[in-house]
Amino acid sequence: MGKTVKAKSRKSIHEALVKWFDDKPRGTVLDAPAGYGNLSKQLHEMGFEVTCGEIEPEIFAVDELKCIYTDLNNKIDAPDNSFDYICCIDGIEHMTDPYTAVKELSRVLKSGGTGIFSIPNYSNIEKRVNFLLKGYLTKPKTKEDYERNGENLFNFHNSPLTITLIDLMFSINNLSLEEIVIDKKKSKQFLFYPLILLLRLIQKLSSEKSRKKHQYSLTSRKDVILGSNTLICIVKKK
Questions:
Q1: What is the pLDDT of residues 92-115, one digit of tens each?
Q2: Is 11-187+226-237 CATH 3.40.50.300?
Q3: Are 32 and 87 in contact (CB under 8 A)?
Q4: pLDDT tens sequence across 57-81
Q5: How far apart are CA 81 and CA 113, in angstroms?
Q6: 8 Å CB contact between 77 and 54
């Protein structure tokens, strides 16, 4: 098994994904950003053929796998329709151009292939209330923070995307949202349940045109509004 490689993302995300991959047909996987290589290593040991991409390849710590420089804001160095699966774990929110990132990840995914994207769940009820009270979706950063991080924007959450925006990115790139995997339940979300009931009443009283315009069927999904801190989106390429 070799040395233990820690997860750069939440450990619960990797655990949920390994469980999801367990009974899936083996095939080729692009893991980008690969971070330290925790997920790449586990998928490799499960029998998947893993290609690893990272904007900081020097941090990659899996000796038996090669990691190449990959900036998802730009072109991915791979032909069209190269992979059976693509994994983008806690990556899109760090992009300055997330639309290009999703477009490129879709381009290298085979038709009928599966994409896995994990992003912070800015659409759950806790985040909505937090935005109302504090006025921001993601924690504010200063110029001093930027300088301390080597003036690298990829260390920040540059694109705090709601479920409606990420779904738009999927749809314009021939990706359909198939399911949302929950990595860790947040029981305290249920403290906001009276507010959710009020929102659902308002939605029910709205016209069909209004419900469609505001995409309530998406924003009020239980696995979104009462979901965990992370949205793990499983998509299929048409």
A1: 999 999 999 999 999 999 999 999
A2: no
A3: yes
A4: 999 999 999 999 999 999 999 999 9
A5: 9
A6: no
